[in-house]
Amino acid sequence: MGLRLLNIGKDSQMVTRNTPAVIRLTLVTLATLPVYLYIILEKAAGHTHFTVADLLGWQLLIISAGLLLLFGMSRFTLTIRFKDLSPGSGTPLLDISTGFVLLISIYFIESIGRLTYYQWLPQSGPDRTELIQSLRAIAASPVYSIIWLGPITLLGQLFLELTRTLFLKSFWDFSQKAVWHWMPIIVFAMIVSLLGLDRGWPGIISGFTTSLIFNLTYYWYRRLNPLLVASIIYQYLNVSGLWLH
User: What is the pTM of this model?
Assistant: First the structure.
């Protein structure tokens, strides 16, 4: 009986110690998943209407709302500050260098994909003609280009990397067991992979491997800045490729 009471006491202490992490984990999940779920459902439904207004106005609205929610939670609810997302040691130069190494790794893995599963698997998906035309219309306008390459790309990648690091770190802070470290790495990569539904199985696999490498980099390096460097440059290069296509 005494041993049972002792065990209950230890369990109660563990629950008390983990309560902030549990709350943070719940709040981060509730704040981030709806945005991703909305995009995934849009692509699963075969949404093909991508006008300039959709790409500029609607995306900026969704991203801004998501960021405001994250910053509001960080300020008033979460017990974690954004600077706490970089607990690892590093310098600005090392962060930038790591970001470029990450970027090169992503393109190397993608080049392997182009030679393998992109050739083997069907690239099914909705017609992207209207999307390409809208992107070219944006490229033809200096004002639209500034909006796209400025707030939309920068805020979009900031939202992606903040949600990634908040999601992963919330799980890691919850428990030191290996399953709580590796499970969110896989789960978040799966969530991001579904953003490639409109590009068929090759897009899903590519999204999974890319996100997995980002997650592993954060797991080993524990710094936010390298992810931002690689993510922003990666997005700029992809957009430039679409414009020049």
Answer: 0.84
Tens-digit pLDDT string for the chain (245 aa):
333 333 333 333 343 344 466 777 777 777 778 888 888 887 777 666 677 877 788 888 888 888 888 887 777 666 667 788 898 888 999 999 999 999 999 999 999 999 998 888 877 666 667 777 887 888 888 888 888 888 888 999 999 999 999 889 888 988 889 999 999 999 999 999 998 887 888 989 999 999 999 999 999 999 999 999 999 999 888 877 766 65
Give a yes or no: residue 158 inside a domain: yes
| End-to-end Cα distance, the chain | 73
Looking at the domain assignment, is residue 12 inside a domain?
Answer: no
Of 100, 118, 81, the closest CA to residue 205 belongs to 118
DSSP 179-219: HHHHHHHHHHHHHHHGGGGGGHHHHHHHHHHHHHHHHHHHH
Q: Domain tally for the chain? A: 1
Indicate whether 152 belongs to any domain. Answer: yes
Judged on CB neighbours under 10 Å (0-12, 13-18, 19+), 135 is: buried
- Note whether residue 3 is domain-resident: no
Q: How far apart are CA 78 and CA 187, in angstroms?
A: 22
CA–centroid distance for 90 within its chain:
22
How far lies 198's CA from each of 4, 13, 66, 137, 228, in Å?
A: 55, 47, 22, 21, 25
Q: Domain residues for 108?
A: 20-244
